[in-house]
Amino acid sequence: MSDVFDQDRDLPLSERSIRTRADDGRPAPDSPAWTQKIDNPYLHGVYAPTTEEIDVADLEVIGELPDDLYGVYMRNGPNPVFEPNCKYHPFDGDGMVYAIYFKDGKASYKNRWVRTDAFQKEAEAGKAIWPGMMGEHDYSLEGFPVKDTSNTDLLYFNDDIVTLWYNAGIPYTLDRHTLKTKGRETFNGQLKRALSAHAKIDLEKNELIFFDYWDEPPYMLYGIADSNGNVIHQENIELPGPRLPHDIGFTENYVLLHDLPFFHDMDILQRTKKRIVTFHRDMPTRFGVQPRYGKGSEVKWFDCEPCYILHVVNCWEEGDWVIQVGCRSTNPMPKANPEEGELSHMMAYMRLEANMYIWKFNMKTGEVVEGDFDKMNTEFCRINPLYGGFKNRYSYNQYIMTKEDGATTLAFGGLVKYDLESGGYERWDYGDGIYGSEAPFCPRRGATRHDQEDGGYVITYVTNSHTWQSECLIFDGKCISKGPIARVKMPHRLPYGFHANWARGEDIWRD
């Protein structure tokens, strides 16, 4: 496998050969038999679900693990148990968490399904019950009219791992040591409804910043919970109509909310029982800068060029200015390819087009300054978490393979480190037929925000579609272009996933 990782390393980026589709057109040997009956690339190749939960200690390491690598790298993703009862969308797959624990220079691994209420009921029935994202909403079902899989993001909060879903869904807590699902996260009974796919941990103040959205006025709220899981602030935010915001930003004094022109029509939803999303190119994108502990009526809205934004890099304050860096898409719904048949619109949406972008909002004058930072197709951006809400210099993104690369599905082809001060970047490609995962920055054991920002590690899972071998790669955060400083061989194939995170060993093992 090392030869595959190292091939083309000295060639110009434009000549490197990482150009295959992420499903690779071949069935994974350990995928369940029912997947072979369905012509959907998000059920095959590196996307194919696995059927086992395992625990393995003292994993084989190529190279040497740093002694100060201390904590848990965990990733969430879709792993459907039963054959779907409608057209399958990757957001429909049952959530599964894959975690590798680093301690004392060794690595151990375990993976577990997120046993949501829907998962449990379908396990009892022995079949799929809930429709998915592309099915007709069934309002007779308990909970959500489509399956809330809790398969999208995850974070460490209040002594537990918390899993979240693409649409605002019910958060679930997992035991940080065993990954056993403990149940719903309710914030000590104070959570009003649900939680968006992305909430943010402010490590400086030990707070969780979250939001929720729904189809009735006022359409949005945001809240703040303390380190004990108590909601200490929660405010409704009035929007012009139902929206589908995906992320949130924060600074020392503000929360940044998104009102994006990419949303569904309620009349169509009520008539067809399907959520049809449209990008309204004639509407501005609005960002609301809200005093962190202020009333919802205090939000100040800034009109910007029409776009959609999935993920924020970071936000901070500079005098009267509030800065937001994120990955911006001016084409969130690319033109569907008719040759892809009934899945064409889903396939087009999942082919992510985005680039690094900077917005600046003047809180006194209302002025907006915005523009591209870089044109490369990158997303799933991560920073040193100790810098959340403060000015940072580095962002670690995934290179999103394009149609020109030969990709037909969402595929992470390489790791990119951006320097927000110099405007430059460095990049390391995973290799031909090898696909990565979101790569969080992992501060060294005992690190603080006053230490060197990139003085730590960047970690990702990769799966080789030629051999079906999965590995965990550890990079030096200072120089990712040199390749991984260590590789951990995973005990089974890891299906493709969405978001990953890092939990510090100081928190995981503080008991």
From TrEMBL:
<keyword id="KW-0560">Oxidoreductase</keyword>
<keyword id="KW-0408">Iron</keyword>
<dbReference type="GO" id="GO:0010436">
    <property type="term" value="F:carotenoid dioxygenase activity"/>
</dbReference>
<keyword id="KW-0479">Metal-binding</keyword>
<dbReference type="InterPro" id="IPR004294">
    <property type="entry name" value="Carotenoid_Oase"/>
</dbReference>
<feature type="binding site">
    <location>
        <position position="246"/>
    </location>
    <ligand>
        <name>Fe cation</name>
    </ligand>
</feature>
<feature type="binding site">
    <location>
        <position position="198"/>
    </location>
    <ligand>
        <name>Fe cation</name>
    </ligand>
</feature>
<protein>
    <recommendedName>
        <fullName>Dioxygenase</fullName>
        <ecNumber>1.13.11.-</ecNumber>
    </recommendedName>
</protein>
<feature type="region of interest" description="Disordered">
    <location>
        <begin position="1"/>
        <end position="35"/>
    </location>
</feature>
<dbReference type="GO" id="GO:0016121">
    <property type="term" value="P:carotene catabolic process"/>
</dbReference>
<dbReference type="Pfam" id="PF03055">
    <property type="entry name" value="RPE65"/>
</dbReference>
<keyword id="KW-0223">Dioxygenase</keyword>
<feature type="binding site">
    <location>
        <position position="499"/>
    </location>
    <ligand>
        <name>Fe cation</name>
    </ligand>
</feature>
<dbReference type="GO" id="GO:0046872">
    <property type="term" value="F:metal ion binding"/>
</dbReference>
<comment type="similarity">
    <text>Belongs to the carotenoid oxygenase family.</text>
</comment>
<feature type="compositionally biased region" description="Basic and acidic residues">
    <location>
        <begin position="1"/>
        <end position="27"/>
    </location>
</feature>
<feature type="binding site">
    <location>
        <position position="311"/>
    </location>
    <ligand>
        <name>Fe cation</name>
    </ligand>
</feature>
